[in-house]
Amino acid sequence: MYNFEFSKPSTVADAVAALASEDAQALGGGQTLLPTMKQRLAQPETLVSLTGIDELKGVCQGDNGAVVVGGATTHATVAADAAALYPALAALASHIGDPQVRNRGTIGGSLANNDPAACYPAAALGSGATITTNKRDIAADDYFQGMFTTALEEGEIITSVSFPVPEAANYQKFVQPASRFAMVGIFVAKYSDGVRVAVTGASEDGVYRWSEAEAALSSNFSASALSDLSVSSDGMITDLHATAAYRAHLVKVMTGRAVAAAS
Amino acid sequence: MAKISMTVNGKAVSGEVEGRTLLSAFLRDDQGLTGTHIGCDTSQCGACNVHVNGVNVKSCTMLAAEADGAEVTTIEGMSNADGSLSVVQQAFQDYHGLQCGFCTPGMVMTAAALLKENPKPTEAEVRAYLEGNICRCTGYHNIVKAIMAASGQDVMPVAAE
Ligand SMILES: Cc1cc2nc3c(=O)[nH]c(=O)nc-3n(C[C@H](O)[C@H](O)[C@H](O)COP(=O)(O)OP(=O)(O)OC[C@H]3O[C@@H](n4cnc5c(N)ncnc54)[C@H](O)[C@@H]3O)c2cc1C
Ligand code: FES
Ligand code: FES
């Protein structure tokens, strides 16, 4: 790893100021960034740790009933503290990586990174979440812009993520056995005004909404509503773990399972 | 270089580190605590697990500077005050939960973290909790047995896979 300056501010304002310098980068739990830096795929001159900022941590219920997760909240904290408020979100967090990764990795880091096989992007898009930064609120529909690409600007910090709580929801992850990331992951959420279906792990464009399934499930929320739908393998990822056709197949199978398991 | 201080196994320590110094390197190279093993250095294997403020982490994937001011426990701090093996360590010996022993420090740290959270885990819970700890020798079976025994539970129902 190339060397860098390390700083650990205790307020968002100080972190934003520190990130204004050129080649400074935020450090969440480091569970993605440190391995990347070891491979010399990233070489920031300054790392600004967000782990000392109390205002970025924790899970609470907002005024409108939404569950609000601080940007530097670990996966382990979401798994424990969102369990009563939004069980499907807590269950998703409780299956990210392994216990040690969950003890350090944060929601802000996961959403900023937007790995095409990551779990949280599916929850955020599937819940129609709002991503709040030090500058603005961004709707999940506008936030995800292709693999490893988001609406975030240089030096912008995710301060919190607000999830409207659905009537029923479920996340089904077909685990890639070596990395434990999603080979295909489906987040289904049923709201009073319709159903949202977000797909991760499958597409070369990163997380996306499967709109045909949303329409079918909005009129009939049962796995059988999917039976006439087909998923094209165009634009799906092919790698040594699965072909595009296999991933396309899994999208439909896992969506059916998520609907059947939704509660 | 920056000065950092922390408590390691109950003892106050300090040192000068670069930004990029990993906690694993600080413990092994500066403090001479080589029980913390580096199996992969890519965040996969868990041989480097230590507890930071009571939380089990991969010390190869945490900066030493992030642990400034923290309470750190390594495998060297896991034995009883009189130097005898702790319940978890003794169970690994009794149930043959190691072969080459390379993964064992990390396994013991993870087992201790599990039993603190969940004193009577089921076999399935033990196996799920070991997701981040890789062993290339044992096939995990005797590790699971050892952890079940350390929790005071019967090990007979633990079936070979
Ligand atoms: C063994 C292993 C298994 C894993 N398995 C899974 C899995 O199954 N599913 C899954 O989804 N993920 C998985 N991960 C990734 C894990 O969830 C990471 O914790 C997460 O992707 C990144 O979060 P972090 O806090 O560690 O971010 P970091 O690694 O610190 O940072 C990642 C990126 O986000 C930026 N960043 C960090 N915080 C913020 C913020 N608040 N605002 C703006 N930018 C920020 C950083 O600058 C960097 O670019 C795994 C990781 C490992 C090592
Ligand atoms: S050496 Fe840290 S996880 Fe393998
Ligand atoms: S005992 Fe050899 S790696 Fe586990």
Characterization of this structure:
The complex is a heterodimer of chains A (263) and B (161). Chain A has 263 residues and is α+β, with helices and mostly antiparallel strands. Chain A folds into two domains: 159 residues, Uridine Diphospho-n-acetylenolpyruvylglucosamine Reductase, domain 3, CATH 3.30.465; 95 residues, 2-Layer Sandwich (Enolase-like, domain 1), CATH 3.30.390. Chain A is built from ten helices and twelve strands. Chain A has a five-stranded antiparallel beta sheet with strand order 4-5-8-6-7. A four-stranded antiparallel beta sheet of chain A has the order 9-10-11-12, with helices on both faces. A three-stranded parallel beta sheet of chain A has the order 1-3-2, with helices on one face. In chain A, strand 4 and strand 5 form a beta hairpin. In chain A, helix 3 runs antiparallel to helix 4. Chain A is globular. Chain A starts with a strand and ends with a helix. Chain B has two domains: 75 residues, Roll (Ubiquitin-like (UB roll)), CATH 3.10.20; 64 residues, Orthogonal Bundle (DNA polymerase, domain 1). Helices cover 29% and strands 16% of the residues of chain B. In chain B, helix 2 packs across helix 5. The longest helix of chain B has 14 residues. Chain B is elongated and about 55 Å long. The chains are: A alpha+beta (263), B alpha+beta (161). One FE2/S2 (inorganic) cluster (FES) binds next to loops of chain B.
